[in-house]
Design goal:
329 residues, alpha+beta, Arc Repressor Mutant, subunit A, BirA Bifunctional Protein, domain 2, SH3 type barrels, 3 domains, seven-stranded mixed sheet, 10 helices, 34% helix, elongated, binds biotin, repressor, biotin, ligase
């Protein structure tokens, strides 16, 4: 299916319903806000109904939205969205190979800072180190966020850590669970992975043109839904909490948290983020094995450097810096 383009008019209607909260909005009021006829408003409300929105219509009062749908369309994500720029432009597809691939194309074509590509299903989801990422229909958040920071490329790993903190905070807020971060950017609950982050760059030697932050979150799979090869190491928010989680609400929370932390990072540097990241880190102070392409490094995880590099204290007293590895506890 081609990407859903949210009309400007429907976007304005959704914003008006968001601001109105529990109040009813009359057809005339909606027509004024959207700058169209009442008939056009009614047609758009019918379109929203088809997407799964449930309206309550009361004579002489008007309409209010009482339920949003469970797809992650731009309308659904836009309803109640409080961020300023992240998620304000959404490219939605029901089924894609990988949202990263689309985000790369859109970034090349000039997509604005904060554009999000999201799909309800990925057929070739990609993970770190050329692995695949299982992304079944409707049960997870599969999205890629395009940011355009005015930074040199070597600072990109810090943005991955900024993202990990934002996602942890959002999961905590929406589910009440206590996720932890396994360096560099796996998010675990009770020792099992629920979220992976894949950061890719479009840059020249001096400047980042765009950073594409791919986020995959297992949300509403039941534990039995995971394929055998990952069943023992993966979990979902539903499996961990026993409750179904609204993907759109979680995305909204991620956008707000990420935007705030991203601006903190741009204005005040990495230090405040580093402190937060370390407060959520799973392995600090513990004995770990870092499996790198050059072999295993064994020792105590001390923390991260200002570049987001992991420091490991070996038994012989030497502190090793690890740039890329799989961590085993
Ligand atoms: C990891 O290996 O832990 C990172 C996984 C990242 C998966 C996400 S899902 C959305 C985006 N599209 C992809 O193909 N990959 C990322």
């Amino acid at each position: 299916m081609a990407g859903t383009v949210q009309t400007e008019l429907r976007k304005r209607l959704i914003e008006a319903f968001t601001e109105a909260g529990d109040e009813y909005l009359s057809g005339q009021h909606l027509a004024d806000i959207a700058g169209c006829s009442r008939t056009a408003v009614w047609k758009h409300i019918e379109e929203l109904r088809k997407e799964g929105f449930v309206f309550e219509a009361v004579k002489k009062k008007g309409y209010k939205i009482v339920k949003a749908p469970e797809k992650v369309t731009p309308d659904e994500i836009g309803f109640g969205l409080k961020s300023e720029f992240i998620g304000r432009h959404i490219h939605y597809e029901e089924k894609v190979e990988s949202t990263q691939k689309i985000a790369h194309r859109l970034a090349t074509e000039g997509a604005v800072n904060g554009t999000v590509v999201v799909a309800d299903e990925q057929t070739s989801g990609r993970g770190r180190m050329d692995r695949s990422w299982h992304s079944p229909k409707f049960s997870g958040i599969w999205m890629s966020i395009i940011l355009r920071p005015n930074l040199p490329p070597h600072q990109a790993p810090q943005l991955t850590l900024v993202t990990a903190v934002a996602v942890v905070q959002a999961i905590e807020e929406v589910t009440g669970l206590n996720p932890q971060i396994k360096w560099p950017n796996d998010i675990l609950i009770d020792g099992r992975k629920t979220t992976g982050i894949l950061t890719e760059l479009q840059a020249d030697a001096d400047r980042i043109h765009a950073i594409i932050i791919g986020i995959g979150i297992n949300v509403n799979q039941s534990q039995e839904d995971f394929p055998e090869e990952i069943a023992r190491i993966a979990t979902s928010l539903l499996a961990a909490s026993g409750k179904t989680v609204s993907r759109a609400s979680l995305m909204q929370e991620i956008f707000v948290r990420l935007e705030k932390l991203y601006l903190t990072y741009l204005n005040h540097g990495f230090q405040p983020i580093k402190l937060l990241w370390e407060s959520y880190a799973l392995s600090l102070g513990k004995e770990i094995i870092a499996r790198t392409v050059a072999g295993d490094i064994k020792g105590k995880a001390l923390g991260i450097t200002d570049e987001g590099v992991l420091k490991i204290l070996q038994e012989d007293g030497e502190v090793r810096h690890v740039y890329s590895a799989d961590i085993h506890l």
